[in-house]
């Protein structure tokens, strides 16, 4: 906590000088509503620069860095890299706060423009969040009711995930079912702007869509886990998989395995952050 206090003080002294900052949030979530005791945790980065922000997983950042380093050295072996991370990236531009959500569905990568307004209701209630004197605000967004705490002393109208628009940085936000929460844990100074060319390459060849178009794609992929594989096979591309004896699997066997796996994943992933995707 002392580290947070010190870094916070440094941040306040230089915030208006447009120095690059990293806000580290702890994301806690329950992906299966039938197993509420199974709370998952992941550290998330909100990198802020003069022109905008980028929100993404710390584990993703580490995995991408290791992968890029190996590929630069000519190594194609990616074993040992942890690819089990929150997959999405959210970028916001300043000062208009245009909001873009980057995600992969099956074999496609999408850039989703977020048009839904965030109509906050600022409350009089105040609370101590860590070392911050924060004020409460509420919001209905993406099928959930959210309670947020923001700090006017941090003059940035931003926050984790897609959340923004309050008169100060959001240091904590949670939905009313306690299924999803983001809490600020640390603030760091960055030596470089987050929007480096190497990071931009990770989302090349993307398909731009709006929220309605993305929801359609999401539902189709969720209802048909084999959609991407069938499209790949239809285009003539091949996927090599073997059984326990080392014998290559036929396409139909691979499709059955993927369908079974997808349905099992969907059954456990029923408590999405954006709950209205399932409605």
Characterization of this structure:
- With 279 residues, the chain is of the alpha+beta class.
- The protein folds into two domains: 2-200, outer membrane lipoprotein receptor (LolB), chain A, CATH 2.50.20; 210-278, no CATH class.
- The protein is built from six helices and twelve strands.
- A hairpin with a 3-residue loop joins strand 2 and strand 3.
- The protein is globular and about 65 Å long.
- Keywords: Signal.
- It comes from Chryseobacterium arachidis.
- Residues 269-279 have a biased composition (Low complexity).
Layout of secondary structure:
Elements: H1 2-14, E1 21-29, E2 40-48, E3 52-57, H2 58-72, E4 89-93, E5 99-105, E6 108-113, E7 121-129, E8 132-141, E9 144-151, E10 169-175, E11 180-189, H3 197-200, E12 207-210, H4 211-223, H5 227-234, H6 251-268
Parallel strand pairs: 6-12
Antiparallel strand pairs: 1-2, 1-11, 2-3, 3-4, 4-5, 5-6, 7-8, 8-9, 9-10, 10-11
CATH architecture classification of the largest domain = Clam
Q: How many individual domains? A: 2
Q: For the largest sheet, list the strands in their spatial order.
A: 7-8-9-10-11-1-2-3-4-5-6-12
Which CATH C-level class of the largest domain is it? Mainly Beta
What kind of assembly state do the chains in view correspond to? single chain
**Beta-strand content:** 25-35%
Helix content: 25-40%
- CATH fold call of the largest domain: outer membrane lipoprotein receptor (LolB), chain A
Runs with pLDDT <50, length 5+?
1-18
Distance between the termini: 41 Å
- Number of E-type strands: 12
Order of helices and strands: HEEEHEEEEEEEEHEHHH
Let me know the average pLDDT: 83
Largest sheet: 12 strands, mixed
Shape: globular
Question: How many H/I helical runs?
Answer: 6
């Amino acid at each position: 906590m002392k580290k947070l206090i010190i870094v916070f003080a440094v941040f306040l002294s230089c915030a208006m000088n447009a120095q690059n900052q990293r806000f580290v949030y702890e994301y806690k979530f329950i992906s299966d509503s039938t197993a509420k005791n199974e709370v998952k945790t992941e550290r998330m980065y909100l990198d802020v620069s003069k022109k905008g922000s980028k929100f993404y997983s710390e584990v993703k950042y580490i995995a991408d860095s290791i992968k890029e380093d190996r590929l630069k050295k000519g190594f194609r072996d990616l074993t040992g890299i942890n690819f089990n991370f929150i997959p999405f990236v959210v970028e916001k531009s300043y000062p208009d706060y245009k909001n873009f959500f980057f995600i992969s569905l099956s074999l496609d990568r999408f850039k989703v423009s977020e048009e839904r307004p965030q109509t906050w209701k600022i409350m009089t209630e105040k609370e101590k969040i860590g070392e911050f004197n924060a004020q409460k605000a509420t919001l209905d967004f993406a099928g959930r009711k959210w309670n947020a705490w923001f700090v006017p002393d941090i003059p940035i109208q931003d926050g984790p995930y897609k959340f923004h628009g309050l008169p100060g940085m959001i240091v904590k936000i949670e939905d009313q079912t306690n299924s999803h929460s983001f809490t600020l844990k640390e603030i760091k100074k960055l030596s470089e702007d987050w929007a480096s060319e190497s990071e931009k390459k990770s989302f090349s060849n993307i398909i731009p869509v709006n929220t309605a178009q993305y929801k359609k794609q999401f539902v189709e992929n969720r209802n048909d886990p084999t959609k991407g594989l069938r499209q790949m096979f239809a285009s003539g591309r091949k996927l090599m998989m073997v059984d326990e004896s080392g014998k290559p699997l036929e396409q139909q066997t691979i499709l059955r395995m993927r369908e079974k796996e997808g349905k099992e994943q969907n059954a456990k992933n029923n408590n999405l952050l954006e709950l209205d995707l399932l409605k």
